[in-house]
Amino acid sequence: MDVEITKADGTSYRLSDHDVVVRDFSVSSIEMIPSYSGIDGRHGYVDMGATYGSRTIRIPFYINAHDLSDVALLRDKLFELVTDVEPFYIREMRRPEYASMHFCDGEGDEYADRYVGGKRYKVRLSSSPFEIEQMFTYGYGEMAFETTDLPFAESIGTTADIDSNGLRYSDELWSYGMGLLYDNESHRYTHSTRSFEIYNAGNVPIHPFQQELKISIIGAGEGFELRNRTTGDVFRITDQINGVIDLDGAIVTDNGIQALRKTNRQFITIAPGWNEFTQNGTARISFDFRFYYL
Q1: Which of 21, 56, 176, 192 could share a disulfide with 284, CB 3.0–4.6 Å?
Q2: C-alpha–C-alpha distance, residues 185 and 143, integer Å
Q3: Which of 2.40.50.140, 3.30.465.10, 3.40.50.970, 2.40.30.200 would CATH assign to domain 2-151?
Q4: CA 79, 153, 25, 141 torsion: positive or negative?
Q5: Which of the four pLDDT bands, split at 50, 70 and 90, describes residue 112?
Q6: 214 near 287, Cβ under 8 Å?
Q7: Cβ distance 156 to 120 under 8 Å?
Q8: 155-197, pLDDT tens digit by residue?
Q9: How far apart are CA 74 and CA 43, in angstroms?
Q10: Domain ranges of the chain
Q11: Are residues 290 and 211 in contact, defined by beta-carbon separation less than 8 angstroms?
């Protein structure tokens, strides 16, 4: 097993590169935060709904040093690799076949560690520190990470990658178990017809205020309307525009200039699965977003 770490500046490395042997990659379910209200004279509580909290990822490991003093050097190096106030991404890697001894280091053989799906988690170390217990030239410990921002796993690739290149599993961006379909229509995220469908392969709704969602509209004008009939969301242009309308999260621009005031101030969300869209023109509309998973 192995873990790939990608820092905010794009620096990427694997724990195995630094003589850290990963023993497991244990992902918890997402913490549920329910809200209840009591009413005098009524049994029980009134359910006020619930929200998601964070999730924990535990990685037991050991370090394999060359000699007794090298244990301290590897310990300090591991602290340097995973201790960061800025969140970073971790990605799980496993061997597809069991081997009692890791004697095959050739890339592509059945004993080599491979990416487990095209998902990653945005994390930082949990508030509880971890220690490394030395036994001769080995050091044993367990790291605990907590998700930051959102607790969901997210796809490494985006729909723009699918739109441009299709589903190429050789890119290691996509894999089985990500909700993707063989239907070619589900791989199209740019449309110019009056009605079309957009497929969200994740099992989490996408909201532009919380997740990555970019919509580019070319060829629209005043009175243009984009409607997601699946969610009921309607985006409308209420004033004259000069060019390309971009919805990047909560930011709306017209040729790069702030243009929220030229709209109805409503935003499009994407439900899991198929989303049925309509427009009242023939604008060219492109969607770029990641998939998110519970």
Answers
A1: 192
A2: 42
A3: 2.40.30.200
A4: positive
A5: confident
A6: yes
A7: yes
A8: 999 999 999 998 887 778 999 899 999 999 999 999 999 999 9
A9: 58
A10: 2-151, 158-293
A11: yes
Structure tokens at 87: 């969140």
Strands 273-279 and 225-228 come out as antiparallel
Calculate the alpha carbon distances from 292 to 185, 211, 213, 263 in Å.
Answer: 20, 9, 12, 28
Q: Which CATH number fits domain 158-293: 3.40.50.720, 3.10.20.90, 2.60.120.860, 1.20.1050.10?
A: 2.60.120.860
Lowest mean pLDDT among 98-112, 163-177, 224-238, 267-281: 98-112
**260 three-class SS:** helix
Distance CA 292, CA 151 (A): 10
- Tokens 């059945």: give the residue: 110
As a whole number of angstroms, the distance between CA 276 and CA 187 comes to 15
- Give the per-residue pLDDT at 156: 95
Report the 10 Å Cβ neighbour count for 62.
Answer: 18
Higher pLDDT, 203 or 40: 203
Q: Taking the chain, what is the end-to-end CA distance rounded to the nearest angstrom?
A: 22
Q: pLDDT tens across 22-43, in order?
A: 999 999 999 999 999 989 888 9
Q: Please state the φ and ψ torsions of residue 76, each to the nearest 5 degrees.
A: -65, -35
8 A C-beta contact, residue 180 and residue 252: no
Global pTM reads 0.91
Two structure tokens written together for 261: 């005031």
